[in-house]
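note to self — DONT lose this again. spent like an hour looking for the file last time. sequence + predicted structure for the chain T wanted, 476 res
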Amino acid sequence: MSNATEILTPEVAPPKRNVWRALKDAVRGTEADYTKIDLKKAIFLLAVPMILELIMESTFAVVDIYFVGKLGASAVATVGLTETYLFLLYSIAMGLSMAITAIIARRIGEKKKDDAGAAAIQSIILALLASLPFAIGGIFFAKELLALMGADQWALEHGYRYTQWMLGGNGIIILLFVINAVFRGAGDAAIAMRVLWIANGLNIILDPLLIFGWGPIPAMGIEGAAIATTLGRSVGVATQLWVLFKGGKHIRAKLSQIHWNAKVILNIVHTSSGGVGQMVVAMTSWIFLMRILADIGSDAVAGATIALRIMMFTMMPAWGLSNAAATLVGQNLGAGNPQRAELAVWKIGLYTMVFMVGVSIVYFFFNHELMGIFTKDSGVVAVGGKWLKILSYSYFVYGWWMVSVQAFNGSGDTVTPTKINLVFFWLIQIPLCYFLALYLDWGYSGVFWGVFVSETGVGIFTLWLFSRGRWKTVKI
């Protein structure tokens, strides 16, 4: 009862100097036990570096599309079509990441740091194995993959090299995802943040140099964007590995743990299968949507691609808060305190909702201005602006969906969100978007309204399911 009383006691706002001290601790990293310290402080210490990490990631995505946008709508469309395949890779990377975050958080909560280090090593082995099919497909079949998605002639003649680099070097991308998930699950969110600062900071510097050339550096066009991404993220992965074996605040891997551990591997595969399925369903639904937009025209694909980058950038604080929920749920369940885990989710959900309402207001009133930053093509601006405005209506619910899904994932219950996604994205979103866009001839607006309906529905249903509390009994 004492724990429950402590958790439910109203919290007094800390003095300003304590807030600045907490901010410094969040950025530098702390050895705090997130299962015992004040809950608002725990959320703050985890969420700040996670937000900054994701803001840097999305900043790169926005900067990248800004420079590629100078090459024309076909170049932007090439990036968008390539990303439909990368989304499949991301689904695997994010599915593994969900499992790793949950498993590492649970082991840290149980005070089993050696087991956490062993799980980290096995996750790296799995990540490398998962990257091989994408690398082979990207290197040898880039043109065919683009043609399958309805790419125009420019993409097939010039843009395919971008696809080769991005898919061929996908191992770097998946490692970046997975190892940062290790740090987040352990509570070393500040390390994950610094890694992306290094990787994407280098990307941002290299992007204009390699795309447009400078001095002795030749202009490589769209291929330069892919090379910049690969180089920057390679440095990031090297940094991750160095820190992981050197030791963070909460986790350290050992060279003696570098071997195939079937028991740990099977646990990761079992836990991640739901996460991978969850993301595959969501990401493949995006592939179908892009295919519908490709039938409408390159402007529709380009507008959707730029709008997606804007959404990624503006939503990163919300995703950072959601990731903090996953860590807090996992660690507190491991420590045997499910009530504290649930309270963390409701608090974070409220913070996320308030933020997302603010974003929706900006989208509603300034959608064309946001698109105009990245392209002057009026057709592309019209498409992206329409999407931002339509989705602004659903963001009130979307924030709660983000947090509740991460709560399921943090508990290790990755199967429930998979089933939810299967129904709302495959059985509702894809048919509805096709019906509205092509059958009723609403064009790209039909796709966006279909997304609005399905994502509003999935948000409400997922939050209701979370409130039932079965996730508290999951064992991993």
